[in-house]
Amino acid sequence: MSVSRRLTRRAADDDAMSLRRVNVAVLVLLAVAFLIIVQRNLLNLNDFLRSENPDAVPGMILPFESEFSPELRPDLVRTGEKIPVVITAAEERLGAVVAAMNSVYQNSKSNIVFNIVTMNDTVDHLKVWMTKTQLNNVKHTIIIFEPQLLNGKITKNPQKLDSVKPLTFARFYMPVFIPDAEKAIYLDDDIIVQGDIQELFDTSLKSGHAAAFSDDCDSASAKGIVRGAGNQNNYIGFLDFKKDAIKKLGMRANTCSFNPGVIVANLTEWKRQNITNQLEHWMELNAQEDLYSKTLAESITTPPLLIVFYKHHSSIDPMWHVRHLGATGAGNRYSPQFVKAAKLLHWNGHYKPWSRTSSFTEVWDKWYIQDPMRKFHPVRKHAD
Fold first, then answer.
1. Which residues cross the membrane (predicted)?
2. How far apart are CA 110 and CA 193, in angstroms?
């Protein structure tokens, strides 16, 4: 082969190699351009979905949305066993539930999930408080309570009807609200937790017991028992033992009662024993026969619980339910040292920590988060 022909072939090979390199470079550029277009389209789709559902909030279960917000900072996401906490949120007491949840969350590193039961007209206010404050990283679901659940189960007396607060019965329906949970904690909204909620959750329940309560005769809170309105630390203070339906139960009137403001519930056992149905039965019977004691107009949720769980419940450590802080003279009954040592404080009674006349309001103030909508205002002595 002549030298000229070899040179011609080599030049042709070089041209082909260059062309292949150009083609590869073009394909790479096209691939990059395609990926950029796909990314932009996905971002635009995400923005569109957000605009279509502007009310989505972290923790609120919506169609085709994961239970908890993916926007949680990784360093703030808590893992491990879930601790379901059921708590109610009434519009006029919304600041209370916020302070309670904040105290629970800040005093524990456990994987706490709040199940907030509220009325439909409170949802928007609650969303703002949960998303516009430091609670925005708290795992939670919002559950709408339907008052129709109580049809035929509460008094029709117009003089008493105004005092009936539907949300106070939410604790009866825990297995309905969180059907997948095997164990849960119920908390009233007028509490502050100072210990690790994991300790309360780990309360051991005896075999066959669906719930644990703190007895009213326990050593920690006995000195805070309210006087002058019946025997409020035993059954006769809550039930009318003159009624046949109560007498037939054979319960002792002097049996120590318990306070249902804090409940540790075995929901598997609760469902097995049909506790909710039993409670509803006594609610309906009371609506017909007026079985509750006349001395305790506000105790409309305690009596059916006392009947259903008569001598069939476990006990909570007394320091996990130090109560009567909302009673007259609570500041004299409890020393500041005792209050500081308590794991859970409960302002049951007429005087609440967000009002002017309550004791130990400084403890509650520590956990309160100001309302971003400026609707809820704690009343203080120094206020004008």
1. 21-38
2. 14
Secondary structure (DSSP) of 47-115: HHHHHH-TT--TT---TT--SS-TTS-GGG---SSEEEEEEEE-GGGHHHHHHHHHHHHHT--SEEEEE
Q: What letter does residue 235 receive in the DSSP assignment?
A: G
The token pair at 109 is 């590193």
CA angle 271, 275, 278 (to 5 degrees): 140
Dihedral angle computed from the Cα positions of residues 335, 336, 340 and 343, in that order, rounded to the nearest 10 degrees: 40
How many CB atoms lie under 10 A from the CB of residue 93? 20
How far is the C-alpha of 325 from the C-alpha of 333, rounded, in Å?
9
Is the pLDDT at 83 greater than 70? The verdict is yes
Distance CA 287, CA 265 (A): 26
Report field, pTM of the whole predicted structure over 0.85 = no
d(CA 376, CA 322): 26
3-state secondary structure of 181: coil
The answer to whether 129 touches 373, Cβ cutoff 8 Å, is yes
- Residue 75 pLDDT grade (very low, low, confident, very high; cuts 50, 70, 90): very low
Nearest to 238 by CA among 251, 224, 221: 251
Q: Where does the chain show beta strands of DSSP type E?
A: 82-89, 111-118, 140-144, 183-187, 191-193, 211-215, 258-266, 314-315, 344-346
User: 305-340 burial by CB neighbour count: b if 16+ within 10 A, else e?
Assistant: bbbbbeeebbbbbbbbbbbbbbbbebeebbeeeebe
Q: Please give the DSSP secondary-structure letter assigned to residue 219.
A: T
Strands 111-118 and 191-193: unpaired
Distances (CA, A) of 171 to 167, 207, 296, 349, 383: 8, 21, 20, 19, 35
Q: What's the half-sphere exposure (Cβ side, CA atoms, 13 Å) at 25?
A: 6
Which tokens belong to 208?
Answer: 């066959």
Distance of CA 123 to the CA centre of its chain: 14
240: tokens are: 């009318």
pLDDT of residue 266: 98
Determine the distance from the C-alpha atom of residue 20 to the mean position of all C-alpha atoms in its chain, rounded to a whole number: 65
| H/E run at residue 176 | helix 174-177
Closest by Cα among 187, 167, 173 to 102 = 187
Q: Are 316 and 218 in contact, with CB atoms under 8 Å apart?
A: no
Distance separating the N- and C-terminal Cα atoms of the chain: 110
What the block records as the tokens of 7 is 């040179």
